[in-house]
Amino acid sequence: MNQYQGPGLFLTFEGIDGSGKSSQCRLLADHLRGLGREVVLTREPGGSAGAEEIRSLVLEGDPDRWSAETEILLFTAARRDHLERTILPALAAGKVVICDRFADSTRMYQGLSRGDLRATVDSLHKLMIGREPDVTILIDMDPETGLARAKGRQGTEERFEDFGLALQEKMRAGFLSLADEFADRFRIVDGAQDMDAVAADIARIAEAELDQRS
Ligand code: TYD
Predict the structure, then answer these.
(1) Ligand 1 in reach of 55 Cβ (< 6 A)
(2) Is 204 among the domain residues?
């Protein structure tokens, strides 16, 4: 065990599509490894073998392939597997877990985008997950820029990008109000800055959290 090893830290990233989360997750993982921390970099949906299989079910195909209710079940099933097999063992070993999206994404995308299903999302979360991140970094940015970036990435996983700008605007407002609701763990970072400045803000936040816990 090296001198920086302390209790585990569960850190999640949230934000609209194209907000730069995935790149920032990687940059933070590299940064913390450079400080001697053991880091597990993971993502949702996915992060374990079973959850990665569910990922292709939920992210590929027609936008109306699943009802919102079925999606809640699928995302929660994937999350449960991810938690059991990847997240909790890593935290128990004192590692930093950096996760690209977690339950807040279900609260927003399934809980808000097609009617108000937030109560259903919360009930299932309580029953099957029962764990919130220690810190959640919200990369806030203008939906038009986010959508342009997300569309620029060609690929098969575009069910949600297909919902368009109106959804992204609703999601941005939703994430900001979620940050108010869970003010103790949310930190908002301005995603309009250049990548290095965003990364520096995030590194400061993560280091402060780790210092507080050591
Ligand atoms: P991803 O490739 O991770 O996109 P991004 O880099 O923009 O995060 O795809 C994740 C997509 O899945 C994204 O559009 C949001 C959606 N999603 C949900 O709808 N509910 C969820 O619970 C999660 C974790 C993701």
Answers:
(1) no
(2) yes
Is 209 inside a domain boundary? yes
Instruction: Say if strands 9-14 and 135-140 run parallel, antiparallel, or are unpaired.
Output: parallel
Q: Whose CA is nearest to atom 11 of ligand 1?
A: 160
Enclosing domain of residue 156: 7-213
The residue whose CA is least distant from atom 14 of ligand 1 is 160
* pLDDT tens digits, 102-134: 999 999 999 998 889 999 999 999 999 999 999
Domains identified in the chain, total number: 1
**Residue 99 falls inside a structural domain:** yes
CB 157 near ligand 1, within 6 Å: yes
**How many other CB atoms sit within 10 Å of the CB of residue 201?**
19
Give residue-wise pLDDT tens across range 161-185.
556 788 889 999 999 999 999 999 9
- Which CATH number characterizes residue 158's domain? 3.40.50.300
Closest ligand 1 atom, residue 44 Cα: 24
2 located within any domain = no
Question: Is any ligand 1 atom within 6 A of the Cβ of residue 21?
Answer: yes
Q: Is 106 in the pocket of ligand 1 (CB under 6 A)?
A: yes
